[in-house]
């Protein structure tokens, strides 16, 4: 199924549907913010679905604010090679990932971040899973927004596990302008007062006074 979107004066777009619908974006340069939720993929990890998502997102490359569902990111896994076809979001300053279930954020996000050179705000449902994926390679290809513009990070489901602390350490090490970190603890962490205090102490040891949990 194909659907053409031709709206030269459109300012906001919200799309929630099956990823195998091929959207043909036309004249969407005026869109300022967009929310994309493409789920219900069958069969899983279909190449055609990944190509459809790339086509839709590339047509929205002028947006300043973009929200993506975790299911949308999963359309690219393990078809990450299709991300090479994704346009660069030169105007994007605010990127959010949302999920109906608390979970880690797909490692695909790191590939998308390399397409957002001016990103200032990043909101994610959980830490990025397997963000290193070969540490030397990862450290040599850190998204440029980490070094130039990213100044705010928000994590919504934080369990206080060691790999999550390591992710924060990685972000603080590589994001030169990251001055505002907000961490929302999971219900599991909130219910464990001893672990919550321990996590707070670990975060204090990381150094950032603006890191709030």
From TrEMBL:
Pfam family, one: FBD
PANTHER family named in the record: F-BOX/RNI SUPERFAMILY PROTEIN-RELATED, F-BOX_RNI_FBD-LIKE DOMAIN PROTEIN
Domain FBD: 141-179
Alphabetical list of InterPro entries matching this protein: FBD, FBL13/AtMIF1-like, LRR_dom_sf
Organism: Medicago truncatula (Barrel medic)
Protein name: Putative FBD domain-containing protein
